[in-house]
Amino acid sequence: MFTGVLLGIARHDRPKGPMETVDRVAVTVAEGIHGDYRGALKPGRNKRQVTLLAAADWRAALADLGNPPIDWSERRANLLIDGLALPRETGMRIALAGGVLLEVTGETDPCERMEAVHRGLRAALTPDWRGGITTRVLQGGALAVGDEVRIETP
User: Fold this and answer.
1) Which pLDDT value is given to residue 38?
2) Which candidate, 108, 125, 143, 105, places its Cα nearest to that of 9?
3) Strand-pair partners of 3
4) By the 8 A CB rule, do 25 and 82 touch?
5) Can you give the pLDDT at residue 44?
6) What is the model's pTM?
7) What does DSSP assign to residue 17?
8) Residues with Cβ < 8 Å from 7, sequence gap 6 or more?
């Protein structure tokens, strides 16, 4: 079993709204990360409740660009994970301290908004799922920066 650590939590309360970083947050099956507009259950559209970004992938993307000083939250992911490679296949599960269980539903495709952050960022995030993963919430709980993160097989 592989373990890592939760380095950051971010959310935004409306489309294209600013990202807010927090130290702790509740996660539920019904709304994903509390206060994040994307996580609420929607008929037929529940594959992107919580997004995760690996710190190593973020660093690699920035290295491709000459290491500009861009905060991870500009990626607009919900959780920043360090110490392990995120799974790159659907159905894998990610367990976090506090009882949260997430199921990988796919890749978080970098969008044109990344170009507004820094020229070339979209392309730097594209290879090998560097832009992160999308998940759905299987079990809610509490998250806090510093929590342990584990990859589990289904």
Assistant:
1) 83
2) 143
3) 150
4) no
5) 61
6) 0.94
7) P
8) 55, 72, 80, 81, 82, 145
Give the per-residue pLDDT at 153: 78
So where are the chain's domains? 3-152
Q: Average pLDDT per run of 10 along the chain, which is 154 residues long?
A: 90 92 96 89 74 97 96 96 94 95 95 92 95 96 97 83
What pLDDT, on a 0 to 100 scale, did the predictor assign at position 135? 96
Rounded-to-10 torsion of CA 90, 16, 61, 109 = 30
Class (C level, CATH) for 3-152: mainly beta
- Bridge pairing between strands 79-82 and 50-54: parallel
Q: Dihedral sign, CA of 114, 70, 137, 20?
A: negative
Query: Is the Cα torsion angle 90, 130, 112, 74 positive or negative in sign?
Result: positive
Q: How far is residue 17's CA from residue 124's CA, in Å, rounded to a whole number?
A: 23
